[in-house]
Amino acid sequence: MTIKPPFGRMLTAMVTPFNKDGSVDWPGVETLAKHLVANGHDGIAVNGTTGEAPTTKPEEKDEIIRVVKATVGSKIQVLAGAGDNETSFSVDQAKRAEKAGADGLLIVTPYYNKPPQAGIIAHFNAVANATALPVMVYDIPGRTGVEIESDTIVKLFEHPQIVALKDAKGNVAGTSWVIKRCGIPVYSGDDILNLPLLSVGAVGFVSVCGHTVGKDLKEMLDAWFAGNAARALEIHQKLLPVYTGTFRTQGAILTKAALTLMGLPGGVTRLPLVDATQAQIAQLREDLQAGGVTLK
Is 187 among the catalytic positions? Predict the structure, then answer.
């Protein structure tokens, strides 16, 4: 089975850098987008969990899309998170993202509500019907409180605008069956499972660690699809300290700290997130260096 990747293979869910006064660091947004392009990315996902979307205003989300798209041009696809736990608001967000210039939508399962599978199907179909943009469905039950069941994923893939799945479920066996059943392009949404998911048919990554080790992840993808599984495994094992270190606490917190350590504009977080402590930064430094990341 050959599955084409609709958004390329290497994407990262970009952080949103904030100034100390809480405002968006717009030059920082441009710098980070350029950094990701320079490290081999095919796409950038903005306004997601790692971008602290729950604490950015709709107008800020629109401008983030515009700034990133203007920075990366037409060669790099920009996906915009537009999911919410309320369907009509998600539809509105999707329309705004399309108007702002997004190339695709990343839509998470409605969270907190714990809708039944019928509600999940209705929600995703409503958002997919709202624009002409292709949709990547995002399954992350650890955050949303409800999984997208396999039968539901197969059913959703029948919609012509739903073209991919970001899988952060942590159930490689279940994802194996979904790929076999319907051939949906799957992107790993859990960095430590990037290689395991490739092994069962995933087409690429929507990474967090792409901020820090994008070139390595790109090399791992290239090695895997060139048939060099041994090299892909070597890279996977090299990056284990980075995968583990980035998620010792919430991923956006430590990714921003990591970018600062690299001399890039990570910026501060917005409440209810809090910035990394000095002890967490010291541990992160060790983790990144163990994974071969060059720090300032």
Answer: no
User: What does the alpha-carbon distance between residue 279 and residue 213 come to, in Å, rounded to a whole number?
Assistant: 22
Q: What is the pLDDT of residue 296?
A: 87
Q: Which residues contact 275 (CB under 8 A, 6 or more apart)?
A: 253, 256, 257, 268, 269
Q: Which one of 61, 138, 155, 169 is the catalytic residue?
A: 138
Compute the distance between CA of residue 143 and CA of residue 101 in angstroms, rounded to an integer: 28
Cα separations in angstroms, 103 against 14, 43, 79, 94: 15, 10, 6, 11
- 3-state secondary structure labels for all residues of 70-104: HHHCCCCEEEEECCCCCHHHHHHHHHHHHHHCCCE
For helices 210-225 and 229-246, the axis angle rounded to 10 degrees is 160
- Which pLDDT value is given to residue 151? 98
The crossing angle, in degrees rounded to 10, of helices 251-261 and 278-290 is 70
Separation between Cα atoms, residue 23 and residue 73, nearest integer Å: 25
Question: CA-CA distance, 157 to 144, in Å (whole number)?
Answer: 20
Given 166, 169, 218, 256, the catalytic residue? 166
Residue 132, pLDDT score: 98
What is the token pair recorded at 139? 């399954």
Tell me, yes or no, if 112 is annotated catalytic. Answer: no
Residues forming beta bridges with residue 12, ordered by sequence position: 44, 207
Instruction: Write down the pLDDT at residue 239.
Output: 98
Q: Can you list the residues of the chain whose pLDDT is less than 50?
A: none
Q: Both tokens of residue 186? A: 């799957």
**Dist CA 268 CA 242 (whole Å):** 21
The reported pLDDT for the residue numbered 2 is: 86
Cα atoms in the 13 Å half-sphere on the side-chain side of 254: 24
CA distances from 254 to 39, 148, 251, 274, 285 (A): 19, 28, 6, 10, 10
Is 39 in contact with 214 (CB distance < 8 Å)?
yes
